[in-house]
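Batch queue: ligand-bound targets. Current item pairs a single chain with adenosine-5'-diphosphate. No template structures supplied; prediction is de novo from sequence plus SMILES. Inputs echoed for audit trail.
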Amino acid sequence: MDIVFDQAQASFDQRVVLQPLSLRLTERRIGVIGLNGSGKSTFSRLINGLLLPSSGRVVTNGHDTATDTAKARAEVGYIFQNPAHQIVLPLVREDIALGLHTRRLSKDDRDRAVLAALERLDIAHLLDRRAHELSGGEVQLAALAAVLVTEPDIVIMDEPTNQLDLRNRNLVQRVINALKENVIVVTHDLGLIADFPRVLLFHDGQLVHDGPAAETIDHYYRLAA
Ligand SMILES: Nc1ncnc2c1ncn2[C@@H]1O[C@H](COP(=O)(O)OP(=O)(O)O)[C@@H](O)[C@H]1O
Ligand SMILES: [Mg+2]
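Prediction returned. Tokens below.
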């Protein structure tokens, strides 16, 4: 993974919500924390070109998100804050296959890839379930499987344990820790990122701390006091 922000700024209707930011991310696990509205989701959406910088550049694995959006996007799997919105087809198997629709795969190969993605997360039993009948934890994992099937280098999860009970939260944490992919986690669940080598703290649209988890969490406590 190699993500470069070069004086990248984000604005909505002339209002700057992310101040010009320059950094390079190469660690396999990156946490992003900060108060509500501090710019965490904005930052994460810049990485895969869901949002383009109003000035400056974001280059994800060598692809400028503004000029090479499709290639940048293919590097990143993004799981939204409310993954239920990401599930569009009735059956789990159909929804996960959706990510493969641009590939020229035989039906057998597609079915195999879908099953493999579910098996990686120990949720093969959800294959023929109705997506809108899944529990919160199952939705989070199904959305993750839908992303993994596209073989991204980087997985971004926006508040993945929000609204999960403790058992599902712990399950999602174990799954995140076991992923071979690079992972960027935006969260208020500080336990989730407590072992991460690098955690970014945003405040009022600015990166105010960038360091190992314990150090950044300490800054966050002081900032929120
Ligand atoms: N689509 C949008 N249009 C206008 N303002 C937005 C939009 N998305 C986010 N913002 C604003 O940008 C700021 C940062 O939002 P966001 O990145 O979602 O914060 P966080 O994820 O840290 O809660 C907030 O003030 C928010 O209201
Ligand atoms: Mg957010």
